Structure formats: C-alpha cells, structure tokens
Amino acid sequence: MSSVFDDLVGQEHVIDILQSAAVASRNGAETQEMTHTWLFTGPPGSGRSSAAVAFAQALICPKNGCGICSDCKAAKTSGHPDVELIRTEGLSIKVEEIRELLTRVAWAPSLGSWRVVVMEDADRLTESAANALLKAIEEPGTRTVWLLCAPTLHDVLPTIRSRCRHLQLCTPSIAAVTQVLINRDQISPEMAQFAARVSQGHIGRARFLATNETARSNRKVIMQLPMKLGSLASALEAAQTLVEIATTEANTASETRDEVEIEKIQEAYGKGATGRGMSTGGSKAIKELEKEQKSRATRMVRDSIDGALLDLATFYRDVMMVQSGSPGTLINSDLFREVETYSASAPASSSIKKLDAIMETRSHLEMNSAPLATCEALMCRLAQT
Ligand SMILES: [Zn+2]
Fold this sequence. Notes:
This protein is 58% helix and 6% strand. It is α/β, with parallel strands linked by helices. α1 (12-24) runs parallel beside α2 (48-60), α8 (189-198) crosses α9 (203-211) and α14 (348-366) packs antiparallel against α15. It is globular and about 65 Å long. The model has no long low-confidence stretch (mean pLDDT 88). The structure holds zinc ion.
C-alpha cells in the first residue's frame, strides 16, 4: 500500500513515530503519542519539511496518509482548508505575518479533527514573531497542530523548543539516495551514484545534479578552483567565478518562478480579458509580489553560494583523507588525480585551516556579509600554503 511516508529516505525511526502518532490522533485528543507541537530538525536535504508535510497529510487523511485521496493531495499543495504550509521566501518571518497566521487558524478545523500548520523555516522567526507564536502554542485545548522545522535545536528559542516534541532526521546514506534516484527518478545507476556521492546525502541537490547538465559543468569549474590559486590576482578571479556561477544558477531558477507568479496575478486581475490592462488592485498586488521576489532572490543567491562552498569543502576534505593515508573513501573520486597532486604539494596542517576558513566564510555569509568581498577574503586564505 502506498503511503505519504514513502518518499522519506533513510528516516525509518521518524516514520514509525509519526505513523503511530497519526493513528493515535484519530480520536482528536492529546495522548502520549499525539501532541500538538512538533519540531523537526535535520541537516539540509534530509527532508525535514517533507517529513512535516507527510505528517500533516497523515493527520488529515481518513486512512492516515494514503497519499492518493483528495485530502492527501490537497494538503500537500496548500489547497486543504485545514492545512497551512508556511514557506518563507524572505530572510525572516516577521511578527505581523505570525499575527495574520494566528487569525487564520483561530477557527476550529472545518473537516477533520485537526488544523495543521507546517512552518518550514522556524529558525527564521524574529524574536517578537517567536513570542507571538509561543502564546498560541501555550493555549490549552487547541485543535491546531504545529509542525515546526529548523536545521538544529539551537535555531529555535528555548521557550518554544521546550514545548515541542522533537524529531531528529539524519542524513540519508549515499546508498539510499542512489536507490531513490534510480527507482523514483529513473536515473541511470552510474549517474545516480555520482550525484548521490558528491551531494553527500542531500537528496534534492543530488537529483538536481543528476538531471541538469549545466549544474554538472558549473560544479566542475568550482572544483577546479583550488588548483588555480597561485597568486593574489588569481584568488580574486576565483572568488568572482564562484560568485558569478552561484548567482547565475540561482537567478535562472528564480526568473522562471517569478514569471509564472506574475502571470498568475495578471490573470487573476483580468489582464487580457478586457484588453484594457489590470485594475489598480492588480498593480498593487504585482508591486508587493515583486518585493517578495527580490527578497527571495537574495536568499537564493546566498543559498547557492553556500552550496558552492560546501562543494569546495569536499575537495579539501578529500585532500585530508589522502594526506592521512586513507584515500579509499574519496567524495570526489572523479578528481582523484587533482586531489593526489594537491595533497603532495601542501602540508597536512594547512588542509584543516582551509576547511576552517570555508566554514567561517559560510557563517559570515549567513550573517549577511557582502558575498563577493567575503569570498575574496576566503580565496586569499585558500591560496596560502
Ligand atoms: Zn489520503
């Protein structure tokens, strides 16, 4: 029998808990298994939001998450009256947004026993937004189930996380990701293996790489950068290459999405139907959408740069493996020769420093430092032996 949990790769322990909670929730009361606030944490790509959405479906579906009934389908796409999927496009979730949300979910569920809110980026709540949410979570006898997602426990205010049942998702094994790419996405075994290995268990990234030739050739360019850091000038050039590639990749993805969204609003406000353009309401809606899109684009560029830095880190990690005498487990086995030459030319102590430099850069970018200047500083550090 199919189930909404089928797509969660390598998370059996979490699935067991969610399935019994969904069964226990049938009577609409809180039990030991069923509580009304949950926190899903896990590294990027582990599928924390997919797990939360699957659980929302299981709570709404009369068969505990069959995946095929109309309730399951509607819940997955924000089309169910009792399910709210909160996906943040910007860098933070503000208190006004939480207040609006609380007004929307204040009603009793319209169809089933529960109203479910999935918040994909609970780590982006501002402090005042988190406090507003806290009040709602503390309310006794509520029929609203809160499914919060964040990378780690520390990303959520202690007052909130202490009220949540915590579920930790793990990075799926490379073998498990390979198998999903072959079975679900019909990708050739060789390509699936490559994509799963270099994406280190990040299933979305693995799928993107396996199905996108431009992404693969971009990755190739990034992975050659360590070999090109001979001088200050070349370090600055490498930084520019990295930022340019990451920006183009992010912008290509957002542009297609932006256009579709704008067209939808134009249609909704009757552009084309009267031949006289849109009403003032329509222009206002488009202006608001464009503001949101701009903020999302900034975030996508940052995420994309972060992905490139993680790729780069795997190179120095491999260098360290070779330097420590265990080259059997290389992530970038396709770059074996480059890794070997590099390992012989630099002292082992410098590889750790370089990895540290990359991780530091990631946290600087996370705190909104200027991308190009930050990457330039990094490349200069990577150029040192
Ligand atoms: Zn169903």
